[in-house]
Amino acid sequence: MGAGMTDADRDDARTADGAARDDRGAPPDGRRQAMRMSVELPLWRALTGYRILTLVYVLGLFVVAYPHYAHPLGAAAYMGALTAWTAATWRRTTSPERCTRQFLVADLGVAVGGILLTSVIDTQARIMDGAATLPSIWTAGAVLGFAIKGGWRWAAVASTIVAVVNLVERQELARDTVHNVVLVWVASVAIGYVVEVARASERTLARALQIEAATRERERLARDIHDSVLQVLAMVQRRGTAIGGEAAELGRMAGEQEVALRTLVAGGLLPRQRAVPAAAADGDPAARPAVADPPLPAGPCDLMALLAPHVGAGVTLSGPGCPVALPAAAAAELVAAVGAALDNVRVHVGADARAWILVEDEPDAVLVTVRDEGPGIAEGRLAAAEREGRLGVALSIRGRLRELGGGAEWISVPGQGTEVELRVPTGIAPEGGRRGRARA
To answer: In which residue ranges is the amino acid composition biased (Basic and acidic residues) (predicted)?
Structure first.
């Protein structure tokens, strides 16, 4: 019976740990607890119910056959012991932790002892006529315990022992006896195999969720690095080259580190955001103006008020005359994405380029459009920039909105400027609630 799973394997099978997420993307504790629910637990509960119901059935058989036993008092003593054993150990089969190997062996011993005792207590004529053994179908519960606990190998060993003992008690290969023992053997082995497959599936799910958690954390760090460290390195490179001398060497080293860091953070692109200042686009992010994010309130906030600091001589903001309410975290991510789009305008069109921000409060979403008067974006340029490690679009714009359940679309005609449409579904809950459908 040593072919069963280890305790560590069973623990892995009972737990499918969800991805560890921060307060903007994590499922609540209740949902994480639901992930830990194992498919094994219903089987243990069913086994407990089976043992109780079959005990009632066996006692009924005993009452009917009582006058026909050769030693009815002996049968009554065994039934009393079987009842006491089932009552005393019913909690043992409610969970894998309580159902130990020692209990399973003892439980099987009670069943096997009852089968062998039948040949002493019952008459030979009744035995040859196919009368039920003292424990009858209660024996199958002991075998199923082995199946659920240790898989099909344990089930095969336990059911084989029961089959041999039944044949010894009957003293011949009667067709009904063979039929019954084969049925128990096949059923227990099949259930044991299903349990092993379920455990393997749960371990696979747990591993996938752990990988997802690690990937999300890595990508969150990649976003933060792109929005802060890379900007500083690019600025040092640019200023050092302009100053010359020893500063030029420092700038060259900063440039090398920027390239290496871009290559590193380009390894995985799933969004995991925090509210950060407006980030770099797919151009050089160095030494350009950035608008500081205003402090966020605890509850919903007005998107128009958060976008107001971006308005200047070259940027026009238009929108509804009433507040456009969004959860604070979602509004911060949307404002940061708008800031990244405006950074693109400054880098690719020019510091004095004009841009327009249009906010539309639709019934099911908030749509923010950033339009410029630049030369437009060549076809395939965004995908090429992402491959080169310039992640402004991938992380700071599209990644932010995708995490919120929204999306971003670029509409660009060469020579006629570019429009970036940023959509966030309303009613979203960045803390783990409902999300809309992503468009990008």
So the answer is: 7-32
